[in-house]
Amino acid sequence: MTRDVKVAIIGAGQAGLSMSWLLGERGIDHVVLERETPCHDWVSRRWESFCLVTPNHQCRLPGWSYDGPDPEGFMLRDEVVAWLAAYRESFHPPVHQGVEVTRLDAGFRLETSGGPVEADQVVIATGGYHVPRFPVLPLEVTQLHSARYRSAADLPAGDVLVVGSGQSGVQIAEDLHLAGRRVHLAVGTAPRAARRYRGHDTITWLEQMGHYARSAAELGNERGHDRANHYMTGRRPSHDVDLRAFAADGMVLHGRLLGVEAGRLRFGDDLAANLDHADAVAASIKASIDDFIDARGIDAPTEPAYVPGWQPPGGGSSLEEASLGAVVWATGFRRDDGWNRLPAFDGGGFPVHERGVSAVPGLYWLGLPWQHTWGSGRFAGVADDAAYLAEVIGARTLVGA
């Protein structure tokens, strides 16, 4: 595959495809190098009942947007896969799948499983979720990361402990609960948001209010990797994810997991505080929507304030290992950039960039959480970030021509 190219894009997920579309529109020669198959994470790292939490009408990529029958709904995993496949078919990007980049050196020489590539510029579009991050407890039960969870039926008999109450953890806990499994959920400090409020989807309100356009720097999250997303679901019928309601319906909630001693798992005494924090964030989002409605004189129905129901008992809790069949770790991912030999990282191993533009001239990042704005992790946010980088790349291409 020895080749000289103007731009090499590493990764063929929605970020890499978006960049390819934009470069193609500018007539800039490029290749897209993909270790697996395009958008493979949507199949390999999502469970069977997975669905988006952003409304379908907000699914927008360069030259492509959702035009199906349910703009207010939420695409399921397989529908997202089909939507992205149709996107690829709409412009036939120059993707070389099954080609792994094993080294990136100065001068933008890439060593790959398909042979060397030399590029004038490089876009790293591998996202921010590389290697599952989780401890392995000394337990004689099945333990797996959320990236490997597919369905309740795949897990052995017995109770299931889900560790982590971010988006994945809460949605997997609900999936197991609805399948009739006895679920224990170790609850952390992730915030929550209502699904709908005052006649519209909460995310639709937030987009109208400009929240997703707010920069990471403005929100005090410049490094973009230390803020959990609000947990919610797009699962039908539309509903709020309320852990108190789950508990009232039989799910067992615990505080953060502290460890294992003599076959017993111990949990902290922070459950009440964590639930109160999530409720407070949800209330603050509703208050900001109220202010937006009032300031613009929007005619919108009113809603009564949320009243917390189930209350946890005081103190910590514990769980016998013998009752468990499995532990699902919804504890995030760590980066894996060992192949990248360029001086493009900070002391913690995180990419150093300004709106995706690296300090190494000609090197760019795309698809990072909080890359520039709160909305960078969404389809439309990736499209905006890609458009900005395409302008930078195009200008540099002209200078170097």
Give a brief outline of the structure.
The protein is of the alpha/beta class and 401 residues long. It is built from 8 helices and 23 strands. The protein has helices at residues 14-25, 41-44, 77-91, 167-178, 202-208, 243-248, 271-296, 379-400, and strands at 3-10, 30-34, 60-61, 64-65, 95-97, 101-105, 109-112, 117-124, 131-132, 142-145, 159-163, 183-186, 196-197, 200-201, 252-254, 257-261, 264-267, 317-320, 324-329, 333-334, 353-354, 357-358, 363-365.
Element layout with pairings:
Blueprint: E1 3-10, H1 14-25, E2 30-34, H2 41-44, E3 60-61, E4 64-65, H3 77-91, E5 95-97, E6 101-105, E7 109-112, E8 117-124, E9 131-132, E10 142-145, E11 159-163, H4 167-178, E12 183-186, E13 196-197, E14 200-201, H5 202-208, H6 243-248, E15 252-254, E16 257-261, E17 264-267, H7 271-296, E18 317-320, E19 324-329, E20 333-334, E21 353-354, E22 357-358, E23 363-365, H8 379-400
Parallel strand pairs: 1-2, 1-8, 2-5, 8-23, 10-19, 11-12, 11-19, 12-15
Antiparallel strand pairs: 3-4, 6-7, 7-8, 9-20, 13-14, 16-17, 17-18, 21-22
Helix pairs in contact: 1-8
Explained architecture:
- With 401 residues, the protein is an alpha/beta fold.
- The protein has two domains: 3-130 and 335-400, 3-Layer(bba) Sandwich (FAD/NAD(P)-binding domain), CATH 3.50.50; 133-329, FAD/NAD(P)-binding domain, CATH 3.50.50.
- Helix content is 26%, strand content 22%.
- The chain has helices at residues 14-25, 41-44, 77-91, 167-178, 202-208, 243-248, 271-296, 379-400, and strands spanning 3-10, 30-34, 60-61, 64-65, 95-97, 101-105, 109-112, 117-124, 131-132, 142-145, 159-163, 183-186, 196-197, 200-201, 252-254, 257-261, 264-267, 317-320, 324-329, 333-334, 353-354, 357-358, 363-365.
- The strands form seven sheets. Strands 1, 2, 5, 6, 7, 8 and 23 form a seven-stranded mixed sheet that branches. A five-stranded parallel sheet has the order 10-19-11-12-15.
- A hairpin with a 3-residue loop joins strand 6 (101-105) and strand 7.
- Helix 1 (14-25) crosses helix 8 (379-400).
- It is globular.
- The chain starts with a strand and ends with a helix.
- The mean pLDDT is 95.
